[in-house]
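For anyone still unconvinced, we reproduce a single protein record, the chain in one-letter code, the fold tokenised, and leave readers to judge:
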Amino acid sequence: MGIESVKVLVDQEWAKIESESPAGMEDVIWSYSLSPPFPLDWPPVRGSQFRCYAYAYGRIISERLADGCHVGAPWASIEISQQRMAPRVVVFSNKVKDIGIQGVEPLPESERSLFDKQSEVQRFLLSLEALPEEGSEETQNLRDYYSSWVRYNGVVVTKIRPQHRSFFKWLGCKQ
């Protein structure tokens, strides 16, 4: 099951969220984004469970912050199980809480092609019932995709990483 299948559920919850802009920045326009799924246990086993995170990002329309955006802490998780058909949304907070500014930059072509493989990589991860074979193309794509995602989403990763330490250690991400 891909992350695309949960968008309708998350849209319904996002409509209920209140934004809490930092003092003096009431003109932040917030949107939400979804993280890729992260395994709750690593190495994976039959019946593994995964968690995606809904978090906010915001642009200030009155400032010229062209190379960054505000990032909100995860406000919900999407629980995905290999054994349960329907994902489940768990709301942590009904407010967006700004946790910092994330720099943004254009994606190089090599990384754009990685993000084009998002659905394929996520399906592979969600299907695992044991550690993937080292040296396989799928395993390398998995590591490359997640390492790139972490690189471009470092602010929110600080809130996600503690729940998935074993997976991050296996990935070998530098951030």
